[in-house]
Specification:
By secondary structure, this protein is an alpha/beta fold. The chain contains eleven helices and 18 strands. The strands form four sheets. Strands 3, 5, 6, 9, 10, 17 and 18 form a seven-stranded mixed β-sheet that branches. A six-stranded parallel β-sheet has the order 13-12-11-14-15-16, with helices on both faces. Strand 1 and strand 2 form a beta hairpin.
Amino acid sequence: MLPTVAVLLRAPCGPVSVETISIPEPGAGEVLIRVEACGLCHADLLVAGMQKLPLAPLVLGHEGIGRIEALGPGVDGWRAGDRVGVTFLAATCGQCEYCRNGLERFCPWQSNMGFNRHGLLAERAVAPVNFMARVPENLPAAEAAPLCCAGWSAWSAVCETGLQPGQRVALFGMGGLGHLAVQYARERGLRVVAVDVSEAKLHLARKLGAELTLNAEDAGRALLKRYGGVDAAVVLTDSPDAIRESFRALKRGGTLVLVGLSTARPELPLFETILKGITVRGHYLGTREQLEEVFVLAARGVGRPQVEAFPLKDAPRMMERLKRGELVGRAVAVMES
C-alpha cells in the first residue's frame, strides 16, 4: 500500500475532506500515476450529492494529468515516465454491442474514475490503461486536465450537431464546457451564438470568437426573431430554463444536443418536436478518436481552457464555489510535487 494525499468523500452526501490515505499497488492492466493536476467537474458535485454510492469512502476526480510511475502486470504500450490523461471512463467490458461498435461510453458494465473506482484528486492514483490518452509535453498540466472531460465532451458535442461550415449553432452555458465549445465550433467553421446568465462568461465568449452573445432569458424568442432560428443548439448546463430556451431557438429540422447532467425533469414539447422535425440527442463523453483529437487541437492552440488553479488542500472550498456558480472557466487542482 502507498500513502497519498487525496480529496475524500467518506459517505453519501457527506462532507468532502482532504486526507492522507493508502492506495494499492497497480494490478493487472493498471498503472500507478503521479498526478500533476486534476480538474473539478459538475459531475463531482453530483457524485458528492448522491444518496447512494457504489464505493465509499471515495476519492473524487476524473480529469487527471500525470506521469506513470509503475506498471501493473500485463500492461503493454506504456512505460514509466509517459505523460497521460485519465478520464471518467476507466474500463469497459470490450464485448457488448457498444464496445464492438466504438460506443464504449455506453457499455452497461463500464467502470468510472471518481464514481465506482477511486479518482484522481490525489497526489497519486491507480488507473486502468484502457482509456488513457497521451498528453503532449507542451501542454501545461492545469490546461490539459479539463480536456479529459470538459474538452472531450464539448468537442464531441459540437461534432454531434452534424453542422457544416457556415451554419449557426447556439451554445447554452458558458462555463467549463461552454467556453471550450465556442473554440471548437469556431474551429469547425460554425457561426456561434453564446448564451448565459453571466455577463462575465459572455464577455469571455466574445473574446473567444462568439459572433453573438445573449442573456439566457428569452434567448429562444430572440434567436427566432433575429435569424429565424438556429440550425442546432447545444446545452452545456444543467438548467431546465436553458433547455426550454434552446428548444425554442431551433429552426425546423434543427438538432438539440443535451450535455449538462441534471436530476431535474425538464419538459420538451412533443407537439412541436414532431411537427418541426426536431432531433433531440443526449450526449455523453465521446469516442476514443475524439479524445485524441482534443489533445492534438490543444497542442496547436485550439480548445485551451481558462483555468483557476488551486492547491489540493483547497478542494472543498473550490467545490463550494463551483456549486454556487462563481467560477469562470474550469477549476483545477495542481499538485505541489
